[in-house]
Design brief:
seven-stranded mixed sheet, alpha/beta, disordered N terminus, 6 helices, Rossmann fold, two-stranded antiparallel ribbon
């Protein structure tokens, strides 16, 4: 059954909401990972869950650990932004460890990523010590490469968000255009950067606990 409380036409099955809520049973805090290829809609799934769970959850995206544009330029990696080595993976792992076992009464601050400036901003997301569910979404939660291989053990479950490839790439082109790229540049970036990253991420799909499918409308378990 789909929840009747949709947001902007986005329906989420009650089973998905219930499964997220159930993760907190018997735990002071649970960590749920949402993984998927670029443009798969991980943020939209997080938003839909937040709409139903409200203050019972907080979203902490892996994208907050993007290296700054200045550092990417220094390293010669600016044209590959979004690849695994363009993130501070060790910093992300350290944050998850803090969230996993928070000190009593401690608010944990996490960085967010803001597409309007294409940069992370430190300490822009506050995770209250009373928050029972943290949803962290990102591309490389199930990779075996160091340091990403340390992520999975810090999460209670990981759900893979699956979308038709052609539709997902069209969404990516539209997103790149919203944030300043021309259509030819957006399509070139998808082909040269997003698509190779997507192939690496899709190879980790079988390690997920659950698969989520959606087509831009209804979110459901597969």
């Amino acid at each position: 059954m789909s929840s009747e409380n949709d947001i902007d036409g986005l329906l989420i099955d009650e089973a998905v909401v219930a499964a997220a809520r159930a993760l907190t049973a018997g735990r002071s805090r649970a960590l749920l990972g949402l993984v998927g290829a670029p443009g798969a809609g991980k943020s939209s799934v997080s938003e839909a869950l937040m709409h139903h769970l409200g203050e019972q959850m907080q979203v902490v995206p892996m994208d907050g650990y993007h290296l700054s544009n200045r550092e990417l330029a220094r390293l010669g990696r600016a044209e590959r932004k979004g690849a695994p080595d363009t993130f501070d993976g060790n910093g992300y792992v350290s944050l998850l460890a803090r969230l996993r076992t928070p000190k009593e009464g401690e608010t944990v601050y996490a960085p967010g990523f803001y597409r309007e400036i294409e940069e992370p901003i430190a300490a822009s997301i506050a995770v209250s010590p009373q928050t029972p569910l943290v949803v962290t979404e990102g591309n490389y939660l199930l990779m075996n490469d160091t340091p990403w291989d340390r992520v999975r053990s810090l999460l209670d479950e990981v759900w893979y968000v699956e979308v038709d490839t052609e539709l997902r790439e069209q969404w990516l082109v539209e997103r790149h255009m919203r944030f300043g790229r021309s259509e030819p540049d957006a399509r070139a970036w998808v082909a040269s950067t997003d698509r190779p990253n997507a192939e690496r991420i899709e190879a980790t799909r079988t390690r997920a606990d659950r698969l989520i499918g959606w087509d831009g409308g209804r979110i459901r378990f597969l």
